[in-house]
Design brief:
With about 375 residues, the chain is an alpha/beta fold. The chain has 14 helices and twelve strands. It has an eight-stranded parallel sheet with strand order 4-11-10-9-8-7-6-5. A two-stranded antiparallel sheet has the order 1-12. A two-stranded antiparallel sheet has the order 2-3. The mean pLDDT is about 95.
Length: about 375
């Protein structure tokens, strides 16, 4: 089996993760909704843009620092909130949060995490975002907000694109969609003793912030999400009283409303192709969102980031920063905290190298002139 030290690219780490995860867990992590068109289009959309290097620029010193929603970042990439990380490695969100701290980035904790708000805060004293689903209920959601505030999370992110259960057909085949496993899934689990050991040594798998098992979440998971409206968004924003972002917007008309109610950040996201198929790739919407918000809201892109060049393209289109989900989860699955750190470091090194080759000495040097639309791309 390949080892982490032999992983030089995100694809190498992805391949190692696939070997170390049981089949059902891999399918759950990798897969998307319906025909998985979005899954491939999120990547393909970056091919529409070409990079335009400038020559004879002194690039002996490169400054990657930036600021997003009042948080200072060592570089313009943050970790997206992802649920139930212990399904991929026993260290779960703890390992991912430590990797974020080591690599100078912001960690985002999901409502549906397998380690609690408080546990992750103790692990990572740096900049952190708490991501909120209102699925557990309105009253309980405000309790979670208060816990995040007390624990020192700098920003709150409300996810708005989970009003219905996604149709992830891979999960029906593995049995995960039914809260169980098929015989094939069970055999694959038994063939991965390292994964089993990591899972069982951490105790029972729970939604730690809610104190219930993942199966119990089905009782409320989609009921309250259908009640989300702009009035409630404003109440959440006012209750938090700190940097506040909405995650999952894809229509610039919604961005106008978000700006009007005082949102600080908008995370353009199609949930990594995991929620609704057939919607636009976030990178293709950046310019429209910047225009819709009069450049008064920090625009962040999530879904499809795999290369340092992707980050540059997104920033050239007007994004303030990017978020990654699967890349650090692949690293976590491959080798825990060390694997997540390696995946993030690869991306950071690519960004630094690409900035150097493009003749860019600071993040603020990235502009619309850094890219152009490729031939026959419209």
């Amino acid at each position: 089996m390949p080892r982490l030290k032999h992983c030089y690219t995100q694809k190498d780490i992805e391949a190692l993760a696939r070997k170390r995860l049981p089949w059902g867990m891999w399918e759950f992590l990798y897969g998307g909704a319906d025909d998985e068109w979005c899954l491939t289009n999120n990547r393909r959309a970056f091919e529409h843009y070409e990079l335009m290097p400038r020559a004879c620029v002194d690039v002996s010193n490169i400054d990657l620092t930036t600021s997003v929603m009042g948080m200072d970042l060592e570089w313009p990439v943050m970790l997206s909130p992802t649920g139930m990380n212990r399904m991929y490695h026993g260290s779960g969100e703890i390992g991912a949060a430590r990797a974020a701290l080591k690599t100078g980035t912001v960690y985002s904790l999901s409502t549906y995490s397998s380690y609690s708000i408080e546990q992750v805060a103790e692990t990572n004293p740096g900049n952190k975002i708490f991501q909120l689903f209102i699925n557990p209920g309105i009253e309980r959601s405000f309790e979670l907000i208060d816990r995040a505030k007390i624990s020192g999370y700098q920003a709150l992110c409300l996810t708005v694109d989970t009003t219905a259960s996604p149709n992830k057909e891979r999960d029906y085949k593995t049995g995960i969609a039914f809260g169980g496993v098929t015989p094939k899934s069970l055999l694959s689990i038994l063939a991965h003793p390292r994964w089993i050991y990591g899972l069982v040594t951490g105790g029972s798998l729970q939604l730690a912030n809610l104190g219930i098992s993942p199966l119990e979440a089905d009782k409320f998971q989609w009921k309250h999400a259908t009640q989300l409206n702009w009035e409630l968004v404003k109440k959440i924003r006012d209750h938090w009283q700190g940097p506040f972002a909405l995650k999952g917007l894809l229509n610039p008309e919604d961005a106008i409303t978000a700006r009007q109610i005082g949102v600080d950040g908008i995370i353009i996201s199609n949930h990594g192709g995991r929620q609704m198929d057939g919607v636009p790739a976030p990178v293709s919407l950046i310019r429209e969102f910047v225009d819709a918000t009069n450049n008064e809201v920090d625009i962040i892109i999530d879904s499809g980031i795999r290369r340092g060049s992707d980050v540059i393209k997104a920033l050239a289109l007007g994004a303030k920063a990017c978020m990654i989900g699967r890349p650090y989860l692949y690293g976590l699955a491959a080798a825990g905290e060390a694997g997540a750190t390696k995946a993030i470091d690869i991306l950071k090194a690519e960004l630094l190298r690409d900035m150097t080759l493009l003749g860019l000495t600071a993040i603020n040097d990235i502009s619309p002139q850094t890219i152009r639309t490729g031939p026959n791309q419209g």
